[in-house]
């Protein structure tokens, strides 16, 4: 997949007015695409032969491909540039991918890079008319915060799926350090073969929790995704009880992201 290997940087920027229009078109395209998936594409895919696992795999591959096309639309229309490093190490069986969450499109780019990935998503997306079709057909996991969610996520990992989790639970508030909840660490200790951190930065910041979609930066933003070294969660589980191991793994991940984000901040783009 081109997105997995490409590093595309801008030499200049499209005019502000055009980027505002292109950003609005991106949101419209995303919403219309979600409805088309729910009402047309997934019903047609369900007619193809195969069991539930095969149908889920087809749905995830379809979402991944369409997300890749969506990112390409944002790039070619002048909204963003992107840089992705080490993505060939994503998509391993039993791999828990832990990522920070600075912008609205983080999950879009990650899923675009992985053909068959599961993901823990916000509960609200299950009821949103534009997103519930893809979310349900792909078998993503609702972030209800319950023990059932933890068990379902750990079970997906034990069955050999790749799982994406954002430990913050929501997008990072601009100007604040990310705060990791312990649920991701608990999932890792229950079922992950490996844990892979993915550091995401967006420069200038945009599409954050505090900004409406039309509050675009003065130039096209640069999206950078960097895959870190794999972590064996069992080295935490073997040393302590489950609650202590979960806390230590969560602290380890949080310190890793804080360090990587601090190193990335001065260079910018």
Key words describing this protein structure:
269 residues, alpha/beta, Glycerol-3-phosphate (1)-acyltransferase, 8-stranded mixed β-sheet, 16% strand, 1-acylglycerol-3-phosphate O-acyltransferase activity, transmembrane helix, transferase, 1-acyl-sn-glycerol-3-phosphate acyltransferases
Summarize the structure.
The protein is 45% helix and 16% strand. It is of the alpha/beta class. It has one domain (2-264): Glycerol-3-phosphate (1)-acyltransferase (3-Layer(aba) Sandwich), CATH 3.40.1130.
Q: Kindly provide the radius of gyration, computed on alpha-carbon positions and rounded to a whole number of angstroms.
A: 18 Å
H/E element string?
Answer: HEHHEEHEHEHEHEEHH
Structural class: alpha/beta
Counted by DSSP, the helix tally is 9
Question: Quick one: how many beta strands?
Answer: 8
CATH architecture type: 3-Layer(aba) Sandwich
Please outline the major beta sheet.
Answer: 8 strands, mixed
Number of domains: 1
What does this structure look like?
Helix 3 (52-76) crosses helix 4 (106-113), helix 6 packs across helix 7 (183-191) and helix 7 packs across helix 9. This protein has an eight-stranded mixed beta sheet with strand order 1-2-8-7-3-6-4-5, with helices on both faces. 38% of the residues are buried. It has one domain (2-264): Glycerol-3-phosphate (1)-acyltransferase (3-Layer(aba) Sandwich). It has 269 residues and is of the alpha/beta class. Helices cover 45% and strands 16% of the residues.
